[in-house]
Amino acid sequence: MPTGPSTASAADFIPASHSLAALRRAARNCHGCDLYLHATQTVFGAGRAHAPLFFVGEQPGDQEDRAGEPFVGPAGRLLRTTLQEVGIAPDDAYITNAVKHFKFIERGKRRIHQAPKRYEVKSCRPWLEAELGAVKPKLVVALGATAAQSLLGPAFKLTPNRGKLVAADIAPHVIATVHPSSILRAIDDDMRRRQLLAFRADLMAVAGALKELA
After folding, report:
1. Residue 62 Rama label (left phi>0; alpha psi -120 to 50; beta)
2. pTM for the full model?
């Protein structure tokens, strides 16, 4: 995988029309950083314009890269199940990632996730800004530290601030929580259960904040 920053940016590929359909078409040809060289395809956000909730993860994984849709793997299933448990309808959520291409290293036949570099997140930020402008959500939810720092700045600390409503330049109302993939990586069943309870509590806070903002 490439290791040096690119001089390009996704800003060079943003179309004049900022409708979700136009953005999705344009994103297919984005070369704003070098991650496109190895990924199967761009994985753009999914959901309807004006959805009240806007979820941001880190980047697509192996299954998302192959399918071309965000959050279709185990982490996505966990997210959707938990949303239903706290009373959030799937149609109320637009789901995307801070980075639109899968970054990985190959180990035999497996493709192992690699966290994106800060410059890669920054290069992809214009897509996130355009999506926010098209959807105009009432509340943005950051899933994991990379997404949270993309929205709230590199100094943001997830652990002491998770589940709390905060303001940002990019969106007026943001709540940060863990990425559901972190729950799936728990070292044992007891730890997974506790992490899932905490994640559900965060999404209950999201549901409550959404009602207040409505």
Report:
1. alpha
2. 0.94
